[in-house]
Write a structure and sequence with these properties.
The protein is 33% helix and 24% strand. It is α+β, with helices and mostly antiparallel strands. It folds into two domains: 133 residues, 2-Layer Sandwich (60s Ribosomal Protein L30, Chain: A); 172 residues, Phosphoribosyl-aminoimidazole Synthetase, Chain A, domain 2. A seven-stranded mixed β-sheet has the order 9-11-8-12-10-13-14. The longest helix has 17 residues.
Length: 323
């Protein structure tokens, strides 16, 4: 039945699943209330919105992670969320809201409002999230300076490897256990811990998403109006990611990259930044440098000046075409 979620279901499955308690929230989710009211602390308000459409077992968790990542790499702690749920039927509401609640608690955020509705035309849930946080010092994507060094957290292609395993694993020739381990990479998609460490050092931060690390670095170069010089060998790629990419004939640097942060860090502070990541239990590597010049990314001898298309899209197109 299309239309808004019933008051009873809102009370039972939505209003009690709002992440952490936050004293700044004057008015949160409640029946009949169409707006949230927040008394924010001093600082710079950072806001980011993202839609996501996946199976109900993943969409709530990944939706929170993806929206909060953009706020975190801007130097803020994600603190407030609005969540718009467009659902194909009544059977998925509980799973989605439980995951939203758990992920919000993990990153330390509170769901302050949103909208929930059933839409017959949908085949799978659609979630649109807006994340907000307050930064003491805003960190832009476009703040890299010539002389800075480039740092990558965790590894390239974590999200993409998980997608390859889930969507194409049955057709790829990889060793036993590779797909199962790669699907587990989705648990590492949040970069809130990474960004909390690096914001103390970084002149610029960005989280690679569509198009992977190559796209993330290219966007940072264009935003900062600098040339980035990167060594492919220096970029960490996990064994599972490499195996799946080789089997699918795709580039691990050009598949969905959520789960890592690319940051420009002054040369004198790189070692301190890497040590701080290690102290927090996070992987990090220096992968290149920021140079003067026309905005572009150079990976070894390859110059990339145009937007990077994700290598997974042709695979989905081929699958849809029955090839």
């Amino acid at each position: 039945m299309p239309g808004k979620v019933s008051p009873e279901d809102l009370l039972e499955q939505v209003f009690g699943r709002t992440g952490v308690a936050d004293e700044t929230v004057i008015q949160g989710p409640a029946y009949g209330e169409d707006a949230a009211a927040i008394d924010p602390p001093a600082g710079t308000l950072v806001v980011s919105s993202d839609p996501i459409s996946l199976a109900a077992s993943q969409i709530g968790t990944l939706g929170v992670y993806v929206a909060c990542n953009d706020v975190a790499v801007s130097g803020a702690d994600p603190r407030w969320l609005t969540v718009v749920l467009m659902l194909p039927d009544e059977g998925v509401l509980e799973a989605v809201t439980e995951d939203v609640d758990a992920a919000a608690r993990e990153v330390g955020a509170t769901v302050v409002g949103g909208h929930s509705e059933y839409v017959d035309a949908l085949e799978r849930p659609l979630v649109c999230l807006t994340a907000m946080g307050v930064a003491e010092e805003y960190v832009p994507t476009g703040g890299a300076n010539p002389g800075d060094r480039l740092v990558l957290t965790k590894a390239a292609g974590l999200e993409g490897a998980a997608v390859l395993a889930a969507d194409f694993g049955d057709d790829l020739e990889v060793a036993a256990g590779v797909c199962e381990r790669a699907e587990g990479f989705l648990e590492e998609v949040s970069v809130v811990p990474d960004a909390r460490v690096l914001r103390e050092y970084a002149t610029a931060m960005h989280d690679p998403t569509e198009g992977g690390v190559a796209a993330g670095l290219s966007e940072l170069a264009r935003a900062s109006e600098v040339r980035l010089e990167v060594s492919r060998e220096a970029i960490p790629v996990r064994e599972e990611t490499r195996a799946l990419c080789e089997a699918a004939e795709v580039d691990p640097l050009r598949i969905f990259g959520s789960g890592s942060v690319v940051a420009a860090v002054p040369e004198a502070e790189v070692e301190d930044a890497l040590e701080a990541l290690a102290d927090a239990g996070l992987e990090g590597a220096e992968i290149g440098r920021v140079c003067e010049g026309e905005p572009e990314l150079r990976i070894d001898d390859e110059a990339i000046a145009e937007p990077v298309e994700d290598d997974l899209y042709p695979l989905w197109e081929a699958a849809d075409a029955g090839e």
